Amino acid sequence: MKKRGNDIGQDVVVLHQLDRGVFTPNISPFPLKLETYLRMANIPYQNDFKNPIGPKGKTPWITLNGVDYSDSQLCLEMLAKRFQKDFSSHLSAEEQAVARSLQIMAEEHFYWLIVLQRFVYTKGKTLFQIQTSLPSILRLMMPIIARKVKSQTQAQGMGRHTKEEAIEMGMKDLRAMSTFLGTKPYFMGEKPTEMDCSMFGILAQVVWSLPGSSFESHMNGEFLNLRSFCNRMKSKFWPDWDQCLSSPQA
Ligand SMILES: N[C@@H](CCC(=O)N[C@@H](CS)C(=O)NCC(=O)O)C(=O)O
């Protein structure tokens, strides 16, 4: 039985997502993005960790006043309208176009490097380090899941490249993000906007929840400003970060 939110109260969002991770509140970029947005917009919400997969077969999804909504971006845009929260209105049309391009690069291109790292290059083994509450049946099923995800990466295209080629593409994405961020506190300037939630969702995985990846060491070197950005977002919107992590012990 899905927790639809009827018992939660009017205008309180139920955020359905995977259980907490060990190093990031969620090991998927998209629930982390949406929960960060809910905090940024000060929208009341409650988490539901029991029904993470929504009507479109993906996580996250939300329920608001008994109605279900899927896809982090569609949820965010619906909530922005519903609660009249727009953090990008001060941006010019050109700046908004750049923000969207960066977000799509991060979520639709670089994202696949995270997937490859977790499910193909390490065959799902690191998942049990970063998410200890995964049921033990998943450990047994991991070879099957990893094969399924590998075929998704091939359908998308990134999985058809050699590891070296794919990592080089990921490095170019991170370089573009780092160059654009420069010395600004947030991607679009002095104030955080919606797209910072997306960038944080992705980059926090690279900083904290992608053990052993080729990108990890660069986050302390060439891409140090991306790490600082993550720390800034974490301090601003996740003062309770440590309480939102799960124990490293299974
Ligand atoms: N565009 C979607 C992407 C969501 C997504 O890809 N979620 C992944 C986890 S990172 C998922 O649920 N995968 C399950 C599957 O594909 O079976 C969003 O923004 O919510």
From TrEMBL:
Q: Which species is this record about?
A: Daphnia pulex (Water flea)
Q: Write down the InterPro entries for this protein, in alphabetical order.
A: FAX/IsoI-like, Glutathione-S-Trfase_C_sf, Glutathione_S-Trfase, Metaxin_GST, Mito_Protein_Transport_Metaxin, Thioredoxin-like_fold, Thioredoxin-like_sf
Its domain of life reads Eukaryota
Q: Which residues form the Metaxin glutathione S-transferase domain?
A: 171-233
Q: Family, per the entry? A: Belongs to the FAX family.
Protein name per the record? GST-N-Metaxin-like protein
> Which residue range or ranges hold the Thioredoxin-like fold domain?
29-122
Gene Ontology CC terms, in alphabetical order = cytoplasm
Ranges in a coiled coil? none
Task: Read off the CDD domains from this record.
Answer: GST_C_Metaxin
